[in-house]
Amino acid sequence: MAEQVMLPDPEMPNFDGWTCPLPLRDHKTIVMGHGGGGQMSGELIEHLFVPAFSNPLLAGLTDSAVVTLGGARIAFSTDSFVVQPLFFPGGGIGDLAVNGTVNDLAMSGAQPAYLSCGFILEEGVALETVGRIAEDLGAAAERAGVTIATGDTKVVDSGHGDGVYINTAGIGLVREGVDIRPQRAAVGDVVIVSGAIGVHGIAIMSVREGISFGTEVVSDCAPLNGLVGAMLDAVLDIHVLRDPTRGGVATSLNEIAKAAGVGIELVESDLPIPETVANACSFLGLDPLYVANEGKLLAIVAPSDADAVLAAMRAHPLGADATVIGTCVATHPGMVTTHTTFGATRVVDTPIGEQLPRIC
């Protein structure tokens, strides 16, 4: 009997050349985990998008790219927002659309200047809803000190969207002498967080699921460019900045540890987790380290600069509760651990997907 040969289906994607781990190979279609900022997102980017778009600027995989144009150093970033619900305690999708891109630019040490704004509207969404979002977005831009310079609007058929999606892109100028990127984290560096963590994700969950935690949890959504400016005024040589959005503090620190080839050790008792967030996470079976933030930043600085950076942060309203949560170490490079209150050491790994989808 002749051997049966299976010919490839020309309509199916060819996975033979892919080298990604199992979570991506196991899915021939996109699943929610691919958008969660965890391992599946990383695999999708690394093994599908990066080879397709490969270039030196993209290789750093930072929140914004720093390019030189006409002699000026410019940070350039884009982001899309698909949050549900559209409005939540402390903000809405309009606030997120501005603050998310402003913060990505600020994490490169840039002063954001101009944004674009693209609305994708589903047929049937109330004009009153769109108007409220537009007003929120305009007010957020004014607070952040940026100009909405250009935009676009598209409408999709009813049932083919989710009310309102927004895409923003932004540019800003990077100060002379600033070199902020994850690869600069060094052994001995101090890890600082600007305030309480996990607040945004729990605020979204509380209204999405109609769960009361005894008190209203309000999102920390805010523009961080003013805080970053104050930090750079105090210490120009900040090594790393990151806003821990999707995947939370844990995912951001894992990305930094891998990029720099250092280990990061946290102290659990030093983590600023509000009681409401801790109680909500306990009730929902979540870990606050993996819950999204929208108005907090992580800073990694040389130990000799830590006091000056902390003082500058605490003098700013958005950094009043800044605190040291860990250090960069030579052991276990590429890994994040935490010393627990019981005296044990726990590995804080990157999640596969995301505990709370659709939070930004």
TrEMBL record:
Tell me the SUPFAM superfamilies matching this sequence: PurM C-terminal domain-like, PurM N-terminal domain-like
Boundaries of every PurM-like N-terminal domain copy: 63-174
Q: Which Pfam families match?
A: AIRS, AIRS_C
Q: Where is the PurM-like C-terminal domain?
A: 187-332
Homology family: Belongs to the HypE family.
Protein name stated in the entry = Hydrogenase expression/formation protein HypE
